[in-house]
Write a structure and sequence with these properties.
The protein contains twelve helices and four strands; from the N terminus they run ααααααααββαααββα.
């Protein structure tokens, strides 16, 4: 079986490299159709390798010579790895959907979405191969490619924004884009700060003018420093619902982003974290009463309503990480 495993891994890597090579050719008809086929084939072989190595009792190669299909392999691995594989699972499902229904997308140009899905997928493939097989395909190939073309790079964020042209696209494309948004929301609901899409933005500015940014990468003339310096320059801020409060840095965050950036802790998250932080912590009435008091302070708590237009309806409690500092006053640190 060891020989079969080695062959599967070799073919998986070969298929993925062929996908990258075809994608980066200047002119190639049916680029993403072929890339999707090769990419899914590569992952199918990789997932089968994973099952054979870690779950030898599971039948991958049947007596009649047929093998476990891709969707079954994906579901099995996702079930075993759980949250750690969520992003890869959602990403692969989108590429697999495109591969199976590619003819429905012919009348629309969604290359920017496919590029972003595929770029993220390659990174996920590299990480999976390295984590579970100890193979660093990046070192093996020494492959460093910079996309150079006759048009400026496009961001899938532009395609998915409110100003996009999705309304003018076919029903198949609209459904595909909405499924990507839904997958992203599912990942967010799991508390995973990642995306199935690959995207980046870069801005070159004068180092002396750095201000009002979360993270800045600046080119500096100081020879004692690196050519590119990365620093976090975000300042402290106070959460408040008083728009007229003086001396408070104002940050505009919409309702959705609040639960992705500030109120990120569920009740379960808080209890799990507290067990690790405090030696005398117990989930009891005393703890629940302490948490109940913190709900009155927007610095620590915010309810997420199922229907924003109906605050009397159902909701779920979310807490900011500041809640741990407050609870530390009541418990003994380990």
């Amino acid at each position: 079986m060891e020989e079969v495993l080695d062959k599967l891994l070799l073919n998986s890597k070969s298929s993925q490299l062929a996908c990258i090579e075809i994608h980066n050719k200047p002119t190639f008809p049916f680029r993403y159709e072929l890339c999707a086929i090769l990419n899914i084939n590569s992952w199918e072989l990789l997932l089968k390798s994973f099952i054979i190595k870690h779950f030898p009792k599971v039948i991958v190669i049947r007596p009649d010579g047929t093998t476990k299909p891709f969707d079954e392999c994906l579901a099995f691995v996702a079930g075993e790895l759980g949250k750690d594989f969520s992003v890869a699972k959602q990403n692969l499902e989108k590429i697999y959907e495109y591969r199976c229904n590619t003819i429905h997308f012919y009348q629309d140009d969604i290359d920017v979405l496919l590029f972003s899905l595929l770029s993220k997928n390659i990174l996920l493939y590299h990480d999976f191969l390295l984590k579970y097989f100890g193979i660093d395909i990046a070192s093996e190939t020494n492959l460093i490619l910079l996309p150079i073309g006759f048009k400026k790079p496009a961001s899938p964020i532009d395609f998915l924004s409110n100003a996009s042209q999705i309304e003018k696209s076919s029903k198949a494309v609209q459904s595909f884009v909405k499924s990507i948004i839904k997958s992203t929301e599912q990942i967010s609901d799991e508390g995973i700060e990642d995306s199935i899409l690959f995207s980046f933005k870069m801005s070159l500015i004068n180092e002396s003018r750095i201000k009002n940014a979360d993270v800045v990468a600046a080119i500096t003339r100081d020879k004692k420093k690196a050519a590119i310096r990365v620093e976090n320059v975000i300042s402290k801020f106070v959460l408040t619902d008083d728009e007229n409060e003086e001396g408070v840095k104002k940050i505009k965050i919409d309702e959705e982003n609040l639960f992705r950036t500030v109120y990120t802790q569920t009740y379960h998250d808080v209890t799990v974290k507290c067990k690790k932080l405090f030696s005398d912590f117990k989930i009891n009435n005393n703890f629940n009463n302490k948490l109940k008091k913190l709900k009155n302070n927007p610095k620590f708590h915010k309810p997420r309503y199922l229907n924003l237009d109906n605050p009397k309806g159902g909701s779920k409690d979310y807490y900011s990480v500041k809640v741990y500092d407050e609870l530390a006053k009541e418990y003994t640190k380990k």
